[in-house]
Amino acid sequence: MDTVATTEKDWDRLRILSYCHCGWAMILAVFGCLFLVTMAFVPRREPPAFFGIWFTTPGGKIVIAIWIFAACSFLAGWLLAVRKQYLFCIALGSVSCIMVPFGTVLGVYTLMVLLRQGVRPSFDYKYFARP
User: Fold this and answer.
1) Domain assignment of residue 58, yes or no
2) Contacts of 103 (CB under 8 A, 6+ apart)
3) Would you state the pLDDT for residue 120?
4) Could you tell me if residue 131 is inside a domain?
5) 125 in a structural domain
6) Pairwise CA distance, residues 45 & 78, whole Å
7) Letter string b/e over residues 27-60, b meaning 16 or more CB atoms within 10 A of that residue's CB
8) Taking Cα atoms as reference points, which of 70, 71, 66, 63 lies closest to residue 39?
9) Inside any domain, residue 112
């Protein structure tokens, strides 16, 4: 089976994709913190105790989910930079398509870059050296 060599454009696209994933992770982490900031500046009135639990429990779960996705996105950016875990990067690119509009653009670009013929061999350990 013949392998297709990774071109200089493919290396540049992977580098740009790595930066984009790390930037997207930072945006998600800041967005996840916004809920906590709004909770800190909410006027203190005395609602019934169950209202606090009723509103903060789902909100807290959403914040944790956003932080987990941000950590996974940052990990994917780092893994793209070191050319490891090809399947994880594909899976995260697919899941990123759910987050409209920026996640969709990043997910589609991730899939377009990673599914190119010459990119897959660059994730193998034998082929790690850049030309």
Assistant:
1) yes
2) 24, 96, 97
3) 87
4) no
5) no
6) 45
7) ebbeebeeeeeeeeeeeeeeeeeeeeeeeeeeee
8) 63
9) yes
